[in-house]
Predict the 3D structure of the following.
Amino acid sequence: MVGRKAAAVLVCSALLFGCSGNGGVGDPDPNADPPPDNYDIEFGGSGVVRWRTSDFPLLVYIPALPAEVVEPERTWITSNVTAAVDAWDSIIPDIADVADITTDQAQADLEIHWRPDFGTSPFGRVIWTFGGSTALMHGMELGYKKELHGIEANYADYYDNMSHELGHVLGIMGHSGVDTDLMCPGGNSFTRTLTGRDEEALRWLYRQSSFMRIETAPYNDPD
Ligand SMILES: [Zn+2]
């Protein structure tokens, strides 16, 4: 976990490497059930940040990859990121459709910004700022270099990473301590999948009646 930066707070994650995240702010409902055990630390200090359920489905805009990305990577990165948008569907009670792809950039709730890499550890990250009663989400950055820090990525890695970042987008600010959970930071694990623990963490978030509301904000390149 890292502290909040002065202006922008980065919730990052890594597929292959270490990962840092940070807490949002907001007050958990003291009368609600506790979050899943393995998420206690993550939620305990970070409060509750989530969308209004009326905001769903979130519309995700995936721009074309930079020209330097050639086939077949061009197709398989995009197709796996696209497929991952469905990973969280039907987990929040009564919400069958959490996120969809849109080709209309102006309508997007979430826009992906391609970066060759991040120079350090993250393979993807969601950019947030917090102010007043809202959490502002500025978009998601995903790395597209197939070889990252000397380790070759594969198809499943892009699916896995996008699914993980969407967990952050939905409001899971922290990480699971169980390395097979999708919301585990990653590290050396190649076995992350969306587990019952991940699902329960999201359901817990969306049972809270007191929360900091997520809104979208213009993208600001952190560099
Ligand atoms: Zn993460």
